Amino acid sequence: MSRRLLIARPGHIYLATYSPASPSISIDLDLPVAGNPSWFAISPTDSSLLYTFDENAATTFLYKLDLAANTLTKAAERNDGSEGVCHLGLSKDSGIMVGSSWASGTVDIWNTSNGSLDFVKTMPSKHPQLDAGKVARAHQAVLDPTGRWFVVNDLGTDSLLVLDLASADMPLVKRAIVPNGWGPRHGVFYPPRDDDDGAAATHYMLLCEKTNRVIVYDLKYMDESIAFLPSGTYSTFVEGDAEVERTEGAAAGEIALSRDGKHVYTSNRLLNAPTETIAHFKVLQGEEGVSLELVGETSTGGKHPRMFSVSRDGGELFVGNQEGEWAVVVLKRRDDGTLEEKPVAGIRMDELVKPGGDERGPMFVLEVV
């Protein structure tokens, strides 16, 4: 059965079809847009509503998606958010959206109820005393599985900010400190929960860009916040002396949890190597709690894999490369969670990127309903 993909790079949003039987990826729509739509939030209550932004400006958009007609129609555009937003997160009821701005070091709150796009307020990510001398770089807002808390990873201040959706003004109720200089980028709550479950998470797995490490936190839910208790840290690189030159100056990109919760994947960028990699970890559960075991790395066929995602049935990873030979690749997951070395399908960079414009490849790729 074919699957539909949403792909984006500077100046373009694409709808594509991945056909596993062939296997192949075909482009169904190439929509030219202004700026860089580097992330999308899809309404959990109406999958036809897509929110995005121009990362190079302070503009936020709402699009209507019609997969049957292969159309994306702009429904709203606002210019009152922060400049340089790089991630959007939506509440379970689609009523609140949180934008994280790397460039401005701020967090934007939007009212998105009933398919709206109404700006509410901007919050500074930086604490004037605790973060003195640092530059805030809010990078992602992750909704916890209970639906009450957003956790904002701030790469510049090395902190996790907890926002409480139970209060109308969404106050910042906690700052959890990450080791200095590690650069928290993206995170996932564990274990994976059904959207209607509402049960609390037991752990938070945080990918740190500057050290290429994953921190596993034990979580303690309290009436007023969540406590983050670090229980282990894990490199995203295969260990060995031969890896030092390859990994010097590297920067981790994305983290994703498999649908069954047994595997974690991260992307390694800016390597001194012809192509870059997806790292695969097994999730281990023992008497001392949850830990990770690095299994290996798999080439993405390109460079600078900023974002990737797990297919809806859990059988593949869809990977976007900003540079290199392959713009998009499909990596097949085996039953044991390992990735097949050769992509089963892909889109070459020269099929998407033409000389004369912004020549960066996809920064976003996601299967859509």
UniProtKB/TrEMBL annotation:
The record's section on SUPFAM superfamilies has: C-terminal (heme d1) domain of cytochrome cd1-nitrite reductase
Q: What positions belong to coiled-coil segments?
A: none
Q: Which GO terms describe its molecular function?
A: 6-phosphogluconolactonase activity
- Similarity annotation: Belongs to the cycloisomerase 2 family.
Protein's UniProt name = Uncharacterized protein
